[in-house]
Here is the input.
Amino acid sequence: MAKKKTTSRAKRKPTTRAKVVKTVTRELKQLRASVKGLTKRLVQEAKRRQMDAKLMAAARQARQAINRQVVKLSGEGRKLAGELKTALAKVKRHEGASRDAQSQVKTLNAELRRKEQELARKNAEIERLSGELARRSAPSESPAPSAAEPAHQSPLFPSEPSGWPPSSGGGED
Here is the structure.
């Protein structure tokens, strides 16, 4: 094997070792900076993931709370809808009863007016007959009708004699 030539230190370049040290130091600094940056990024990523996990848990809890409220409000809505439906049916029944009552009141009012008119007509007839009776009894001044005179019938009450008061009430008790 061939022997290597050994050169003396004097012949070697003294800067090579310094260059190597300088290069290694520079690379070491770069590696340290890169490790520091990677560590910083790793810590940031861990914090970000931790925040994401917290946000996901908070969102899950909020979603569950909202779902519970939706279920509760849905039940209340169904209950209120049933109550509203019942109330509307009750109102319709009351409106129908009110219309029936109003119709009956109108009918009764019409009947009352008709009967009041009939009563007024009968009162007028009674007044007229009373006046007639008073005129007939004034000239004769006899307490009882004579046997020769036939009994006159009332035009309102044909079964009654024309004398006052009629036997079917309407006079003094």
About this structure: The chain is about 75% helix and 0% strand. The mean pLDDT is 82.
